[in-house]
Structures are given as structure tokens and as C-alpha cells.
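DOMAIN: structural biology
WANTED: fold as C-alpha cells
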Amino acid sequence: MNGLFSKLKNKKSQQFLKNREHRWFYDSPAVLETFSQLYSTTKDYKKIKSILEKIVFVQSNGQYACAVKSDVNIIIIFPELIFIMKNGQKEQAVAVLLHEIGHIALEHQKKGTPNQQAQVEADFFAAELGYGKYLFEFLKNQRRNPQIETRLTALSRVLNTPNN
């Protein structure tokens, strides 16, 4: 794991990974690598980096992840997302995390953005950071419902990828 810190020489990135609330990252090298990649992905975006440094990632039971706005930004990580991290789908996990960060960055909760619009906007946020195709792959593997179909259709247009 020390090799990851040598890649992340920036003091703030090390603080992010060593945050006491993030100790659980070290339970698995794959989880730590996923969060290291997430931090590295945002290195050229000061506003996003600033938001990321104020988010606490918390493990919980449930499905994949969700973003919660409070005095502190919290993203709840559910077992299914950790499973994805540990099973060679790190890019899909980063895409899901970027989607959740998108909700915070775009202030969906504060603005009262309708859910379907918020989901698509957060998907586009992840796509703008280069993770659209991974989010598309992730969504294709989900149980299909109208919301997933709408998100896949919107992403397929942005990515110029067939939605099937």
C-alpha cells in the first residue's frame, strides 16, 4: 500500500486517504486503489477537488451508494459497490462515486432538482470526467426500469454508443 502513497505525492491526497473516517479504505488494497484513482481523476479540477476533500465516505448496508447533504457532505458506500471495487471493476466503482459527487457538486438537493433530471445530470458529470463508458457498463448490468432506461439512453447519446 505504500506504493499508492508514492504515486499520490500531493499532501492533500494523502490527507484525504488518511482521514480517520476513511480508515476502512485500508481493509482492502482494491478499495484503497479505487479511492486513490478517484482522487487522481479529479486532480485537474479545483472545484471538484475542493468538494471531494469535504466529503466523508461511510460504509453502510444498502445498494451501491448514495449522496447525503448535511453540514458535512456524506456519500454512503453500500456492500455492492465494495464488491465491485474488489472484483476488478474499479473503473465502474469510480464512475458510480463520480456520479454521487456530481449530485453534491451540482447541488441537486439544495436546488430541489427532480430525481430523473438529477440522475441524468450526475451521469453527465461522471461522463465529463472520462467515466461515462464505465457508468454505461454499470447501468447496463442493473435491473432495467424506466429510470435506468432513460439514463442509458441519455448516456448513449453523449457517448455515441448504441443502447442495447
Observations:
- Strands lie at 55-59, 65-68, 73-77.
- Confidence is low (pLDDT under 50) at residues 1-9.
- Residues 2-159 form one domain.
- Residues 8 and 49 are 14 Å apart (CA to CA).
